[in-house]
Fold this protein.
Amino acid sequence: MRSPAAPGAFSEPPKKSLGQNFLHERGVVDRIVHAVNPQPGERLVEIGPGQGAMTFPLLERHGALTAIEFDRDLLEPLTLQAATHGALELIHANVLDVDFTALAGDAPIRLVGNLPYNLSSPILFHALEHAAVVIDMHFMLQKEVVERMASGPGNKVYGRLSVMLQAYCEVTMLFVVGPGAFRPPPKVDSAVVRLTPRAPDTVGIDDPRRFADIVRAAFGQRRKTLRNALSNVMDGEAITAAGIDPQLRAEQLAVADFVRLANHPVTA
């Protein structure tokens, strides 16, 4: 039988079902805190604080932090240990159910987090929906995902995630983190990425839903030409009229090309 844990101790092992890999290497944490560089008056929101590896140093640096944690077993130890570091507002929720716009209220927020690999893309798209109230995002993700996020046309990993994120954000890969920085160590390298939402008046997308539909369709059948891949959303003549060769494939188009396709008038 396991001995009872001391009050406030993180006694539960990482849960594989929740994709938990707890960051523990202080040098990596310091690099992340330095990259975030929180300033007085800013509101930080951490996604998935885990055992507080980033939470407590950010609290010490900034004084206050809002954190969203799904694992009920982590709530009490986070609350108790945070008391000596700063003011922690802890929200028990699935981050995909959190309305960041409502959370921000009348002031923008900055997002930070070591995201579970099995939910990284849904969380990124969820955050993107609230980009208007987000100053920037600093996330730890699987290195392969970060490479996809930051890749450009012609790269074999360039795809829907690349286009959707780069259309709305500046994406910067900051540094790579090895498996040994986590407990338990994952089987892959990780990387820290910064996403800075573009000013709404510079995005240039007339209809976000149509843009998303076109990008999804184009990469849904990426080996096909645009004429075939987009046949359900626009025909070859419309693609040509938008200034794009319909014989090209999705991975050959820049983000601006997808914007032109989406903004082309829809004919009856």
Summary: Confidence is low (pLDDT under 50) at residues 1-7. The radius of gyration is 21 Å. The longest strand covers residues 134-142.
